[in-house]
């Protein structure tokens, strides 16, 4: 890949989704920020270098909420369940995040450990050596959806339907389907909030209702949006930490062997896998309220900015030989969980699930291998999410 036009013209094409990293390398080499037009005709400034990505995410003049920033353009298919913290700026963000943090504590997550281990063992125990399986289907998807559903209190029988709808949300499926999805989810969570209010349980949603009743009330819409955010953020990402991570290891056999020989590397390896094949790759969106200077480029006020977290994580100015997977690499402050006030609230849970998932897989099925050439695998055509179709 070489040249400006080639790199930006390749963005969001089928070839890009199949192999985003070479296009992102070209974008990084070219400029600190570059204005492109999305397939939906929106103008966005793409930021692909580490230092600039971090600077944008830490800049208080760069906002999450388009309405408060006065920008004219919108990211694709902005959903309506939007009264949640990830779409807010201070002071609303501060208030919502504080309330959730109070209920979604490190202690609550640590208490999940035995249950996550149990779910993992159960899923892997259903397979046998020699089976040819779609690992996403039998493991990478059911683990996080079960964990987040149990945490929130979503019933078992509703989970398959959730997968279908949340897939639709991130697959760029068009405004009608997106709207149908949002309506379904809004109705589902509204009913669930009412049920938990009447009959609270041990789950996170009940805790959120209780927290909000103690002090600063969360409105009905805020509770419903929060549940929606946690469910979608809690599994569309972790599924791809597992899927992308397993693929990365299987296609770098010396790294896989290194890790299997010394599982004390696991903690660092999970961070490296998050860096190397970031599940949230060509995201996140922000809106400028003032001109933002990024190296020799000034992004004007009122612009939409797309921070390429996965691209930034492969910047050689951030870590040496960044295009190489190295499970012994000391964690270097990757941006896979974002940065600044919106840094992933679920990161401790995602890390815990990742560690348990990789440890169990590598010890239960140490000889697992790909059933087809890696080049035959298809990647999802999703702007925010980098993950395999199957
Ligand atoms: C925010 C990635 C797992 C809940 C974020 C952001 C990223 C991210 C990049 C920041 C987005 C932005 O700035 O626009 C990931 C990845 C995960 C993961 C890669 C798994 C490997 C989870 C889990 C949960 C969760 C398991 C919840 C159970 C959230 C929430 C926010 C968030 C609530 C919004 C925080 C805020 O706005 O203050 N995540 N996430 N995430 N994530 Fe995660």
From TrEMBL:
Keyword field: Heme, Iron, Metal-binding, Monooxygenase, Oxidoreductase
Pfam families, alphabetized: p450
UniProt region (Disordered), positions on chain: 64-89
Annotated coiled-coil segments of the chain: none
Gene3D superfamilies: Cytochrome P450 (1.10.630.10)
CDD domains tied to this protein: CYP107-like
InterPro entries xref list: Cyt_P450, Cyt_P450_B, Cyt_P450_CS, Cyt_P450_sf
SUPFAM superfamilies with a match to the protein in the record: Cytochrome P450
Domain of life: Bacteria
Family label: Belongs to the cytochrome P450 family.
PANTHER family: CYTOCHROME P450 YJIB-RELATED (PTHR46696:SF1), P450, PUTATIVE (EUROFUNG)-RELATED (PTHR46696)
Name of the molecule in the record: Cytochrome P450
Organism: Lentzea sokolovensis
């Amino acid at each position: 890949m070489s040249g400006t036009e080639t790199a930006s013209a390749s963005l969001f094409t089928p070839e890009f989704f199949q192999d985003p990293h070479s296009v992102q390398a070209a974008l990084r080499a070219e400029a600190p920020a570059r204005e492109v037009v999305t397939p939906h005709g929106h103008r966005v400034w793409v930021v692909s270098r580490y230092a600039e990505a971090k600077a944008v995410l830490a800049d208080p003049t760069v906002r999450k909420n388009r309405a408060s920033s006065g920008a004219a353009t919108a990211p694709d298919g902005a959903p309506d369940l939007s009264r949640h913290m990830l779409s807010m700026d201070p002071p609303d963000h501060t208030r919502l995040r504080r309330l959730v943090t109070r209920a979604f504590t490190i202690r609550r997550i640590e208490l999940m450990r035995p249950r996550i281990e149990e779910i993992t063992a159960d899923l892997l125990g259903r397979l046998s050596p020699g089976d040819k399986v779609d690992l996403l289907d039998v493991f990478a998807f059911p683990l996080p959806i079960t964990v987040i559903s149990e945490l929130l209190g979503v019933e078992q029988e509703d989970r398959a339907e959730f997968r279908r709808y949340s897939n639709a949300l991130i697959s760029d499926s068009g405004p009608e389907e997106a709207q149908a999805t949002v309506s379904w989810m809004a109705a589902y969570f509204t009913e669930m909030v009412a049920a938990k209010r009447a009959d609270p349980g041990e789950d996170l949603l009940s805790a959120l209702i209780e927290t909000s009743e103690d002090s600063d009330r969360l409105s009905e819409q805020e509770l419903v949006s929060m549940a929606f955010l946690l469910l979608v953020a809690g599994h569309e990402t972790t599924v791809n930490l597992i899927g992308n991570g397993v693929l990365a290891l299987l296609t770098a056999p010396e790294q896989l062997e290194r890790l299997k020989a010394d599982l004390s590397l696991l903690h660092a390896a999970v961070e490296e896998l998050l860096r190397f094949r970031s599940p949230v790759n060509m995201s996140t969106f922000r809106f400028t309220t003032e001109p933002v200077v990024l190296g020799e480029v000034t992004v004007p006020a009122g612009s939409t900015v797309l921070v390429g977290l996965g691209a930034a994580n492969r910047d050689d100015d951030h870590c040496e030989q960044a295009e190489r997977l190295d499970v012994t690499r000391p964690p270097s402050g990757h941006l896979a969980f974002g940065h600044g006030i919106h840094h992933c609230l679920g990161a401790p849970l995602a890390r815990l699930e990742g560690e348990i998932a990789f440890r169990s897989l590598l010890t239960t099925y140490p000889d697992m291998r790909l059933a087809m050439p890696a080049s035959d695998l298809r990647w999802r055509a999703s702007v925010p999410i980098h993950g395999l179709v199957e």
